[in-house]
Amino acid sequence: MDQEKMQNLKDSYKQIQMTKEQVEQMKKNISNAKKTTAGKNMRRARWIAAAAAIAAILILPPNISKEAAYAMSSIPIVGRLVDAVTFRNYQYEDDRHSADVTVPELIAEDATDVEILKKTTDEINQEIKEITDKIVEEFETNMKDQEGYQDIIVNYETIAVKEDYFTLKLICYQGAGSGAEWDYFYTIDLKTGERILLKDLFKENEDYITAISENIKKQMKEQMEQDENIYYWLDDEIEEWNFKQITDETSFYLNENGNIVICFNEGDVAPMYMGCVEFEISDKTVDQMRKK
């Protein structure tokens, strides 16, 4: 790839994003939509919210990217303290390389502790930026060095939007010969504005680590008994591979039912072909330990 094409690619990645002014204008429209809909029925609220989103697009400067405009037109506005919007898109494809990167940004709105919530979302946004920038930089470096074939994919999913919490999943994939996927999860307590850690969900002095770990082992055994294609490292000959227990740093999220879901990336507790695996922890496993 020639130097000019490489530079144009880098410039494209940096430019396809909403400016700070555009983001602030969008926040104002979201806030106004919420105030306008107060006390009215949900159907009318949805129409007003949609109109506010359209209005936000119409007042933007003419140089906003198509991707940013589409993201804003897709925002579900009513009734949320935190929203995930598509902040940046990056696509590239030739006969050896393929990239499809969609970068989210969290926006905090109308929270009681809006300063704390804004600080939390800013920290998460910075983490996401660092993760995605690194993936894109590696992709571009490999293109420049003409190293084999490669694919990258970054996307996101809003897993849960509840009165008390918000959960976002960032999905990352890199392929070069073989592929690897890993996920990041961000759960925010909308009552405090802070990110939720696993230990925050439990009362003091409760051994939730053991309870959750034993439940995961049980689920692993049940899955392997039911499907010969499923395999986890539980009684492997290589002892250090075997799953023993989670830690407070193990990835997790809260799903729509409020249940804890423990998450492992490829190769953490099973062979790579198993991909990323998740284990939902039932209420009865930890109900007496959890804070109410």
What does this structure look like?
It contains 7 helices and 8 strands; from the N terminus they run H-H-H-H-E-E-H-E-E-E-H-E-E-E-H. By secondary structure, it is of the alpha+beta class. The strands form 2 sheets. A 5-stranded mixed β-sheet has the order 1-2-3-4-5. A 3-stranded antiparallel β-sheet has the order 6-7-8. Helix 2 (20-37) runs antiparallel to helix 3. The radius of gyration is 22 Å and the shape is flat. The chain starts with a helix and ends in a 6-residue tail after the last helix. The relative contact order is 0.09. Residues 13-18 and 29-79 have low confidence and may be disordered.
Write a brief caption for the model:
It is built from seven helices and eight strands, in the order H-H-H-H-E-E-H-E-E-E-H-E-E-E-H. The chain has helices at residues 3-15, 20-37, 42-58, 66-73, 114-144, 208-226, 283-286; strands spanning 82-93, 97-108, 150-161, 165-176, 178-189, 252-254, 260-264, 277-281.
Residue windows where pLDDT falls under 50 for at least 5 positions: 13-18, 29-79
Strand content: 25-35%
Helical amount = 25-40%
Query: How far is it from the N-terminal to the C-terminal residue, by CA?
Result: 58 Å
Gyration radius, rounded: 22 Å
Which outline best applies? flat
Instruction: Give the H and E element order.
Output: HHHHEEHEEEHEEEH
Number of DSSP-assigned strands: 8
User: What's the story with the biggest beta sheet?
Assistant: 5 strands, mixed
Structural class: alpha+beta
Q: Please tally the helical runs, counting DSSP H or I stretches of 4 or more residues.
A: 7
The main sheet orders its strands as 1-2-3-4-5
User: How would you state the average pLDDT, rounded?
Assistant: 78
